[in-house]
């Protein structure tokens, strides 16, 4: 058995696609509308088989995410990622956490308020 994908319901698919491609570095693999009023986009990092599914129910305004759930992505440079977040006007906690010398991370919010952990690991 393998892990296939995580589904996130979003209000604005274009804003979410921009966040996850520009900040998390994912690539849009496929996009389709299975029914009227629903658009789905699958993104991947190009290396693993695991995908992120963004699902937009057009016209629905309320998106609720569990407050203690976050998803995490590695980045090459946390400083560069923070600069991109600032440029885009994305909300994030500027506190850099470093529980061990080779690891540091921050938390940002995606366009719908889901916590996203952005992680820099040094070898």
Show the helix and strand layout.
Layout (H helix, E strand, L loop, with lengths): L4 E6 L2 H10 L4 E9 L2 E7 L6 E7 L12 E5 L3 H11 L3 E9 L2 E7 L5 E7 L2
Parallel strand pairs: 1-4, 5-8
Antiparallel strand pairs: 2-3, 3-4, 6-7, 7-8
Pfam family, one: Glyoxalase
Protein name: VOC family protein
CATH architecture descriptor text: Roll
> Got a strand count?
8
Derived structural class: alpha/beta
Number of domains: 1
> How are the strands of the biggest sheet laid out side by side?
1-4-3-2
Q: What is the CATH topology classification name? A: 2,3-Dihydroxybiphenyl 1,2-Dioxygenase, domain 1
Tally of alpha and pi helices: 2
CATH class: Alpha Beta
**How much beta, percentage-wise?**
over 45%
Largest sheet: 4 strands, mixed
Order of helices and strands: EHEEEEHEEE
What general outline do the C-alpha atoms trace?
Answer: globular
Domain VOC: 2-121
Protein name: VOC family protein
Organism: Fusibacter paucivorans
Pfam families: Glyoxalase
């Amino acid at each position: 058995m393998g892990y296939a994908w995580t589904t996130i319901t979003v209000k604005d698919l274009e804003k979410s696609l921009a966040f996850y491609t520009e900040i998390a570095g994912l690539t849009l693999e496929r996009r389709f509308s299975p029914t009227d009023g629903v658009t789905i986009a699958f993104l991947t990092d190009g290396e693993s088989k695991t995908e992120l599914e963004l699902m937009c129910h057009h016209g629905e305004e309320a998106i609720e995410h569990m407050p203690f759930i976050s998803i995490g992505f590695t980045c090459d440079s946390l400083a560069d990622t923070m600069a991109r977040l600032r440029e885009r006007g994305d909300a994030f906690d500027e506190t850099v956490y470093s529980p061990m010398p080779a690891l540091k991370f921050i938390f940002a919010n995606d366009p719908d308020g889901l916590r996203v952990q952005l992680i820099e690991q040094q070898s």
